[in-house]
Amino acid sequence: MKKKKITKNNNLLSVDKIIQAAKKEGIDFGKTDPYNRLRYYTKIGWLPHMIRKKTERGEIAGHYPLEVVETLKIIQDLKNSGATNEQINSKLHNTQTNQNIKQSIRMLTVKDSVTSYALLGLIIVLIILQITQLKKKDPKNVILYANDDLSSANQNYDYANVTSGVAYIPRGSKSITVKNTNINELSKIYITFNDDYSPASKYWVSSKTAGEGFTIETDVPVKADSEFNWWVSN
């Protein structure tokens, strides 16, 4: 099958079109909702964040780069071969690193060879530092999800011992529980939303349980998945 040429104008596709393209390429989403599967892969860092923009119908919807379909093929092949989440995470990270290096090399010109190669050296150093930081992270901080079961719409997030993270309130819901063993009775919890959480107008920490986690709640259910950052200060 001839693949569609990628350009700056058509690189972003709505989630529905990404799912259609993935299925045509033989991607099996299993029994779970494909939309939730994409959100899951995004949360654990296997896919880039969705970009919300208007569709052809004028509706606001999440969009992914077309390259996501190829990433989904890599993930499926690795899962079928029995690879663990940690191994898949490492493979995807290495693939992205190689792509960044190749893209940087293509940008080099003969006229500015000295400046360009100095820039390339700086890029490589930054990539090495990024890899070093990734290796230093506790696997619990890198792979936040140990369970692939996404059938429940009211998902809880288990972030083990980390003190910050990203989660989201599913569309049609007004609360979500984040599991975190760092929570104590004196913990201060800070929340910043990255997405529109309308029609809700306010949000708060409705409960926290020492050694277990906390719950975020909005005054009314959100109309779309609403992502937020959270920090715990003890």
TrEMBL record:
Q: Which SUPFAM superfamilies did the record assign? A: Putative DNA-binding domain
Occurrences of domain HTH merR-type (ranges): 35-90
Key word Membrane present: yes
Record keywords: Membrane, Transmembrane, Transmembrane helix
The UniProt transmembrane annotation reads 114-132
Is Cell inner membrane tagged as a keyword?
no
Matching entries from Pfam families are given as: MerR_1
Q: Which InterPro entries match?
A: DNA-bd_dom_put_sf, MerR-type_HTH_dom
Q: Which domain of life is it from?
A: Bacteria
This protein is called what?
MerR family transcriptional regulator
Organism of origin: candidate division WWE3 bacterium
